[in-house]
Amino acid sequence: MKQAVNFRFDPRVIIALNALEADLHYSKTQIVEEAILHFAEKNKIRRSGLFSLAGCLSEADGEDMLAAIKKSKNRKEGPEEL
Prior knowledge:
elongated; 0% strand
């Protein structure tokens, strides 16, 4: 599930974002997500854990994996259940 995040952009960035949205028929979220991933790859930022799988899983598989992780994280197991 996606998480809401707030950013403050320079007016020039908003104009560019709106133009990309109209020209590419992508959502603003998709444009920003792809731009960040491209920037991370370009700058060789190390990725670990699930982030290293970005783009390798279908959206449904990713959602299923995250749901399983959240379920496991929220489940409190006592020593007798281990």
